[in-house]
Amino acid sequence: MKRIPTTCLLLGVFLAACGSVDLDAPIPVYDTGVDPDAWVAIPAGEFLSGQFDDPLALDYDYEIMVTDATVAQYVDFLNTALPGGTLEIAAGKIVGYYPGDAFHGARHEVEIPAGKYLIVPLDDPASRFTFDGGTFEVREGYENHPMTNVSWFGARAYCGYSGWRLPTELEWEKAARGTDGRPYPWGDALARNNANFYASRDPFEDMSSFGSRTSPVGFYNGLSYAGYATLDSASPYGMYDMAGNVWQWTGDVYEGMHYRFMRGGSKDSYDMDLRLWVRNNAAPEYFGPGVGFRCAREAR
Amino acid sequence: MQFVQARFNYLFKSTKGLILVAIAMIALETAIFGMLSGPMAEFGVRDFVVRVLNMNLIPAEREGRIIILYHSIAMAVVAIETYMITGLLKMKAFHRTAVRALVTCGYLLAMVFGMGFAYWGHSWPLHGLYIAGLTLVFFAGVVLVVALWPWREEYYQADNAYSRTKRGVDLERVAFFAAALTTVISAGFGAVPGSYFGNGFRVMLAENIIRYPDKTTLQYSVIGHLHIMLALIAIMLTLIVGRWLDFKGLLHKLAMPLMILGTIILNLGVWGVVTPLEPVAHMIIYVGATPSMLAALCLVIFGWDKLIRSGVAGISKPNFRQKLGALLRDPLKFGALWQMVYMNFTVSGIGILMAVRLDEIFRVWPAREERIELTGHWHILSAIVATIILLYYGDMIGLKGRIRKLYGWSIVVLSDLAFAAGTTFEMKRLFVPEATQQPLVNTVMLLVDFGLGMLLVVLALAMIWRLLDLFKRKGRWAEEIGHELSAEVGG
Fold first, then answer.
1. How many CB pairs under 8 A join A and B?
2. What is the pLDDT of residues A76-97, one digit of tens each?
3. A6 and chain B: CB distance < 8 Å anywhere?
4. pTM more than 0.80
5. Do A183 and B439 make contact, defined as CB atoms within 8 angstroms?
6. What's the CATH fold of domain B334-473?
7. A39-298 is classed in which CATH architecture?
8. Which of A74, A175, B27, B68 supports an S-S bond with B114, CB 3.0-4.6 Å?
9. CB B435 to CB A108 under 8 A?
10. Rounded to whole angstroms, what are the CA distances from B296 to B52, B240, B299, B327?
């Protein structure tokens, strides 16, 4: 008899750990008023890079998307590129061609030869789109959320399809920090309503069940949404979500490494990873619900 | 005045008093700075603490703050082990006094002024005092090495029950000496890059550069330093526990050469990471770790066998249940050895799994996930070391009866619960997809927080009791002032 409460407690803990997560739980829908098709021009010149504010210079102008690429934008791309033959379906996933990387045989380096690689999975329940065998559609409510569950190849393919590219790490950092070496896009300190990060108590998270979810791009723009007041958290050049929401793939391919680098931190990151010099990386075929991207292009 | 002087003499001149002060300092630091991360940050406690204590947490300096925090706690742990060694082993009185004075001043300077510098703005005199503290601890180590010199006849082992050479050189003392000597040398592997990276605060945490194929010699040095120092703290504690339990007999004779060999090879492997041997350094480390762990296994077998034998001493033909009861009767002694076994599940096992399946599993995941595993498993090793110290401390302050059982089992069960949950958290990607991890994360974090939180409560209660005891005229402190650990060995 004495063991019953302990057994019940252990059983409760075990069941709580095994609890299912409703990935399709209703999500609040907000129009942030920020245009995901907008681009911002970043001028050539010096900026302070990295944790120790090293002066560096980019000697060219470039443009970068104001927000992360959204699910709606990516679905448009899939619906165009798949019938067009740029992408293919293979073994339950969308694949696309990549010309491969030079292989240097460094320790832990995995060779990436020319071939077809994962763009997005088709059967992952965390994906924010559906596919009926012919057409891709956005899951309701996620139109203006950042595209996630997309590999580095998938991010590169999206940008490349329109003649754009992924930003380099330095381009990304300059766009996020401006020239004054600030640690966050909006300044020196992080408040909970500056960005979507782990346990930031935004309207899209429920830490007791599904945890953190993405927020619409440009959500932290100083507006109030159903009583939730955000701070205007644009970068000095007017870009949104450069810290938090989703990690963003960058385009650099480094010698001796097959890993691809990400910046910005995500909805699942602690605040320390939202500092703009922090780097994350993963194999290029990795995809996850906290990883997205935005594109860059030559100045026009 | 005599009231203060008597307490001062206990706290800063007796072995048990010195250990109490160091444990209290660690407990205090853990309580304050533990509120700045993890769930406390999520609950908003961090913001409150930062505001109330007027801390100055500049985002770019987080890594530097953490490095000073780790070092200040590590110095206190090193001091505790030093007090134990100087209390357990024979040495000249001058050496004992010098080592204790140096290490006490050193860790207190490093802790107080290091944390002041790290968390309350940049006052360079504080930084200077922090470095001075670390330096004093280093010199304490040098003096300890001299004090432990095993080839002096007065330290020869006359009793054949212990591991010794034909001439009588005490091999256990050689093991202590080897661990102390290599600790002092290995400290240099941190001091040299520390001087470089600390000059201008170009600090880095090793776990953040783990995937970069090209690391500088100084970066390798940092990585080697942090691994070997923790390993040496664990090796030294294993030797200390052996002395506490009066480790001897055949297993002792087997274990001590293994421990000496393991310590030396392990160190050579780690030092090798900054030499052209780097590509094979890991293999050397594995070769060195194996005899060290076998030596620890010998200790566990000896200790548990001893507990069983003494527990069933009056029973003519004890059955399994009686033997098990005897084994578990004293949670302090059983627990200290159990934690060494448990470490294999939560630290060594994880490390081996990661090494074997690194490229296939762990390096497919984002680097931040790998960082959780890296930092998680050495946090657990550090905490296991702390729990073993607390278990020995419970014995040395004479806990008896139900209090002894409650204290001991609380430490073992609560910490192991937290460590198991922490290990599950580290490895969660093996069991659950990223998108559906939250229930598992919530559960394991609850268990971690509960386990460690309650453990800290137990520690706080013990510290409060000891604090109140200091106000008694004939308190326990008055008895302990004359106790020496060497007189209580195997008791």
1. 111
2. 999 999 999 999 999 999 999 9
3. no
4. yes
5. no
6. Four Helix Bundle (Hemerythrin (Met), subunit A) (1.20.120)
7. Alpha-Beta Complex (3.90)
8. B68
9. no
10. 45, 11, 5, 18
